[in-house]
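Purpose: get a first structural picture of the assembly so the mutagenesis plan has something to point at.
Setup: two entries, given in the order below. No constraints added.
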Amino acid sequence: MNDIKIIVNSLLLYGAKTELIALGIVVAAIIGLSVFWALRETKKNKAEKNDA
Amino acid sequence: MGGTKKLKPAENIGAGWLYFYVHFVTEVICFYCLEKQVGDSVFLWIFPFIYDALAFVPQSVIGYISDKFPKIQMGSIGIAMMAAAGLAFWLGFLPGKYTALIILCIGNACVHVNGAEVTLRCSDGKLSHSAIFVAGGSFGVITGRLLAKSVIPYWAIIILVLTGIPFVMLAEYYRKSADKSENPCKKFNYANEKIPAAAVIFLTVLIVAVRGYMGYGIPTSWNKTVFQSVMLYVAMGVGKAAGGILADRFGVKKTAMVSAAAALPFLFLGDNLMLVSLIGVMFFSMTMSITLALLVSVLQKTPGLAFGFTTIGLFLGTAPIFFFKFTTTLSNCIVIAILTVVCLVVMQFVIRKDVKAHE
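Result (structure tokens, whole complex):
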């Protein structure tokens, strides 16, 4: 473990906790939405392929 | 533009070069502003992290909007937003410490998405176009950083980014020509058809994330001067462009596997040898356009969304760097070796066998 330097504490200490939480929520929401759209698109493409 | 004729794929390479420049000026203003704000302050380290998150992740949403509403001029909107953000950083007229940064990030995302849309749609299944577009960014990153440390003022950088608008408008000509076809990305067929599309997306994002993480862990003890930093970014840019060009010439799978495997010895042996290391960095950067082509292969009708997944992967790969890092070269090398093997195995399964572009 000596080879790994953890720096998360210093980030939070400097007062960026609120920003990190807000950012986490935004990122998770966007990724979730993107995955939903991608799955819908791939499903649509598969159905079109089968029809053809 | 009503009489836009259908151009041949070889003629469409112009779109790649136009967006090479647009991508270049985009990164120049972004990294100029970031470097000016961040400097050496530890507290302001959160700035690059927010930049990474908000410039990379929303590209999937913006890309999907661009796919569904192609008349929205994302490129011009993005450039206008970045110029406005530059102005706000310069004059400080916007409230809140992150407002200008958020505008800069969204502007950056819009330009990237449009660049991907244009180059993918008019490439006729080739990788060179998007690879050339992507390569421009590396040159922009180092130029922006260096300019921030010079006496060049904000207004000069704002004018520079605005020079991208005519290039964006010219590139629209290529897109309109390509969009005459019902599905311009239908020749992107590089993914293994036996693997479900959802799995291809997941595994390709994994490759991008792993490569993104590795990019920060490459041992470069030799990198101490400005010239050496410039050379590092030049090698990255050349590698990204070469990856697409070689994939078109020799086949996607061959290029992906050979470049990923060949990068390892050069990267490890080049810790103190710049030239050896640069060869490794070039090989390492070659998979960029290949992963994009894989995602477009399963999301042919939404290339903007596909591009967004590569940037989500990049964010997921680079985010850990902000929280922990390996402090010895040996541990770094071991991690890089393991991750490369993971990438090779995944690529072996995900990429279709011996596919050459436009076959």
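The mean pLDDT of chain B is 88.
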